[in-house]
Design brief:
About 5% of the residues lie in helices and about 45% in strands. The protein is built from one helix and seven strands; from the N terminus they run ββαβββββ. It has a seven-stranded antiparallel β-sheet with strand order 1-2-3-4-5-6-7.
Length: about 130
Amino acid sequence: MGLITYTRYGYMSANMAATETEWRPLNIGWPPKTNDSDTDWALVARHSMSYAGKFSINESVPSTIYQGQLLHGPMTVASVPDMVGATQRRNYLVWEHDGETYLVVSVPIDDDSTARSEIVWRRVMKG
């Protein structure tokens, strides 16, 4: 589950977390308590991610409003420390179905970019 936001001012943020109960311990909350398990918190951290920064269309890749490549970054904030200052390449595809607008973001998940993960976002706000 998550939310990705793009502003007209050239900034974006992405917040994602697992939905599987085995990766979301229900016995912890915010703020952390002294008796919370570090193992439970590590599980939450391992299965969630947040980052924010500038975004732009990669002009070296042919793009339209429906497909192309986004550059997320340089990241200003990130839950993973080595992402701060980095720029992420994200292939995108926008399509409409039954009155809904969807954004598919394709993300490489290995060093040689042969394996990819696709994240599907549904537009929830217009304006």
